[in-house]
Design a protein that fits this description.
Strand content: 15-25%
Number of strands: 19
CATH topology of the largest domain: Glutamine Phosphoribosylpyrophosphate, subunit 1, domain 1
Helix content: 40-55%
Strand order of the largest sheet: 2-3-1-9-8-10
CATH class of the largest domain: Alpha Beta
Distance between the termini: 30 Å
Number of domains: 3
Shape: globular
Structural class: alpha/beta
Number of helices: 23
């Protein structure tokens, strides 16, 4: 896990890469890579790659980056800067050796170089892992960028028509001082509508995110190509055509294999443990594989003492069952107050979530862990959210009514001001947002509804942002052609909430403490084996050799709870009228993202 940066002056102008700019961008990401730093500039000065390193695999100097692939007489043919982990790199290395390839290191980075040299962009279909990387191809005079299927690892870029700049963080790109801070209305409206900024947007007009499952090519001729190599919607459509009757033993084998791959590391790997089925099952599977004791971490909160939200006692019982070395530090309002500014600063893009991940990653780092497994993805894969019932129910029971959208807009205009004073403003939009899955999903997951935004943002800004975001169409397009309700919601949750919020939060919150967070349930190889099947969370748990306690299996879902709402309410912030999560959104926006 690292931070990468690059600058490519692809125009015919004789301008050279500003080394100082590249270093500023690189070192803005020091927390992502405290174990080393490197930079490489091409002989003609048109290309520069930089890297901050968190050493996980091949931890010695042999794994340093940027890394080169050279020809027989020592000339550089390829240069790479890579962020992430390739979990099947040993199998891929063996395959390449059988083709006559020779290796100088034991790193997954060198495997990427050799794979690209052997297969070109087709290499991406062979990778099992989380990754974002850039490869400079000397012979073709072009730059190849790629991002993993789920977008677990970020990659942001800015292209002004002459120069391509890219980095692992938006704020790192801005620190180079060559990119405008002009706001992107779609990014701002996306944040207030959803609680996160949906890709490819960012908060800034001139910075975009390379979409998950996509690669790009830029070269000196001015050619620019973007291609999606993994599309969850298309994959789900194909899976629906297959036989869905798969034995539970197949599920166990697939999960065990994924956890085993995610344990590949030259440093110890821990587990973020809640009292839920996802992380508990991951700890259980990991205990079957690991030869030594595993570190596990649960957060304890005084505010939850004696309540159903207190996960610590049950998590401790699970840890004892699988003999992990368990830690349960207590976090309180004072801790939150102390770190709030740093937490918001660590958010590369604004988010209403991630506080829990920030704290648990901090505790992992304090225990000396660089790597930890997380249960993120279980709800999306196995239908754990109430959206799996609510969204289809709204569409089935209300959305079928002819003209319901037009009626809903009238109803909302009349009832909205009153209902907002009495209850959630979402009730005013129930009829307006019920005619299709995309609308119902936005209603269920939405933070502020579009008609509320002009109350605290400029009306013209809101209109432009909403038009450019085109959210309803984008959400519906992401599930177009999928047949089954459960599969529709699974893709909605995966492509929107999980990808843009949960995985992004795991990245920035983990990297704030130089901790790599791995997600065994979010894996394209696993997806192709178990998605669209009629599995649920209890099936995942029942595949364990040593069963989980029944009280955990039967425990109602609570999520990875944290009393951030109470902490916000206890703080003095008179300028924020809204409290709870909506108030937190305004605090995050005001303190760090108002341009």
């Amino acid at each position: 896990m690292c931070g990468i940066a690059a600058i490519f002056n692809y125009s015919n102008a004789p301008s050279r890469v500003d080394e100082e700019e590249l270093l500023r961008v690189r070192d803005r990401m020091a927390a992502r890579g405290p174990d080393g730093a490197g930079i490489w500039l091409s002989d003609d000065g048109k290309v520069g790659l930089a890297h901050r390193r968190l050493a996980i695999i091949e931890v010695g100097s042999a794994g340093a980056q940027p890394m080169s692939l050279k020809d027989e007489i020592g000339n550089i043919r390829l240069e790479i800067s890579f962020n992430g982990e390739i979990y099947n790199y040993l199998e891929l290395k063996k395959e390449l050796i059988s083709k006559g390839r020779r290796f100088d290191t034991n790193s997954d980075t060198e495997v990427l170089l050799q794979l690209y040299d052997e297969y070109g962009p087709e290499m991406l279909l062979r990778l099992r892992g989380m990754f974002a990387f850039v490869i400079w191809d000397v012979e073709k005079k072009g730059m190849f960028l790629a991002r993993d299927p789920y977008g677990i690892k970020p990659l942001y870029y800015s292209d002004n028509g002459k120069t391509l700049r890219l980095a692992s963080q938006v704020k790192a790109l801005l620190s180079g001082r060559e990119i405008s801070r002009a706001p992107n209305p779609a990014g701002h409206i996306g944040f207030f509508t959803l609680g996160y900024v949906p890709e490819p947007h960012t908060m800034y007009r001139d910075i975009k995110s390379l979409s998950a499952g996509t690669y790009a090519w830029f070269d000196c001729t001015g050619k620019k190509e973007f291609k999606t190599y993994f599309c969850m919607r298309k994959e789900m459509i194909e899976l629906e055509k297959q036989n869905l009757d798969v034995a539970p033993l197949h599920l166990r084998s697939a999960l065990l294999e994924s956890v085993e791959h995610h344990l590949v590391s030259d440093v110890p790997v821990g587990v973020f443990l809640s009292a839920g089925l996802d992380s508990s099952s991951i700890l259980a599977y990991a205990s079957e594989i690991s030869k030594g004791s595993i570190e596990s971490i649960t957060l304890n909160f005084d505010e939850f003492s004696g309540s159903h939200s207190n996960e610590s006692p049950l998590a401790k019982e699970v840890a004892g069952l699988y003999q992990s070395n368990h830690h349960a530090p207590t976090i309180n309002a004072e801790d939150f107050s102390t770190i709030k500014s740093n937490l918001i600063e660590s958010m590369d893009q604004p988010s209403i979530d991630g506080v829990n991940t920030y704290f648990v990653a901090r505790e992992a780092a304090r225990k000396g862990l660089k790597v930890a497994l997380s249960g993120v993805g279980g709800d999306e894969v196995f239908g754990g959210y109430d959206t799996f019932k609510q969204v289809p129910s709204i569409v089935k029971n209300i959305g079928w009514i002819p003209g319901i959208g037009n009626f809903g807009r009238v109803f909302r205009k009349i009832s909205g001001p009153l209902l907002k004073q009495l209850t959630s403003p979402k009730y005013a939009s129930l009829f307006e947002y019920s005619s299709d899955y995309g609308s119902a999903y936005i209603l269920r997951r939405g933070l502020f509804l579009p008609w509320e935004l002009p109350e605290f943002l400029d009306k013209t800004f809101v209109e432009e942002g909403w038009k450019n975001l085109n959210l309803n169409n984008m959400v519906n397009e992401s599930i177009d052609g999928i047949s089954l309700p459960k599969n529709k919601v699974s893709v909605l949750e995966s492509q929107w909430y999980m990808k843009n919020q949960l995985l992004r939060d795991a990245d920035w919150a983990g990297m704030a403490h130089s901790c790599e967070i791995r997600t065994p349930l979010i894996d394209s190889f696993l997806f192709k084996k178990i998605a669209a099947r009629a599995f649920n969370k209890t099936d995942m748990a029942h595949g364990l050799k040593r069963p989980l306690p029944n009280k955990l299996i039967n425990r109602p879902k609570t999520g990875f709870a944290i009393p951030v709402h109470d902490w916000i309410l206890s703080g003095k912030n008179d300028e924020v009228v809204d409290r709870g999560i909506r108030g937190w959104a305004k605090i995050v926006y005001k303190e760090n993202f108002v341009t």
